[in-house]
Amino acid sequence: MEFVFHDFEQYREAALGWGLEFTQLDRGTFHATLRQVAAPKVSLTHFNLNRKFLQRGGIQGNGRTFAIFLNRVSDMRWRNSPEVGSNTLVVFPPDGSLDALTHPGFDAVSISVDLPFLRETARQQDLERAYDAIPRTSETIQTDHRIINALRVAILTLFQAGECAFDRKAIGDIESQIAYLILLGIGCRIPQRRSRPNRKRDRAFSMAVEMIIDAPEPPSIRDICKRVGASERTLRYAFQEHMDVSPKQFLNAHRLNRVRRSLLSGPDGPSPIQDTAAEFGFWHTGQFAADYRSMFGELPSETLLR
Question: CA 20 to 30 Å from 218, out of 40, 192, 199, 246?
Answer without folding.
Answer: 199
